[in-house]
Amino acid sequence: MNLGCLKPALALLALAASTGVFAQKTSLTVYTALETDQLKAYEAGFAKVNPDIEIENQPQDVARGVDAQLDRAIQEVMKLHETNPPIVPKFGPVRNRTRDVYLEKEIAGAKSSEGSDGTRAAKSPRK
Fold this sequence. Notes:
It contains five helices and no strands. By secondary structure, it is mainly α.
């Protein structure tokens, strides 16, 4: 099988895919009861909160392993992280769960179940 004639076509397809020829903007149609002049205020507010940032990955950068879109996305996330830091939960002190504490509780429990004459109270059998 001779693939010589397919190599240029495959190279052209790979080049077109890497340069973003196939990447197209999409549009979203929203049906609402608001008037057009009212929608402009919402659109401006949305654009301010969610900016439309267009970054193209250059083929030579991709070949070197550089992803400009990912780098810019990380920058945006770090900005959001600075303006809205995560909430850190506040925990109380850590309980002592060592064997010594466990044995102390067992001994204290055994002493509390002893009678006034020093004998142990009979345990009820488990069923």
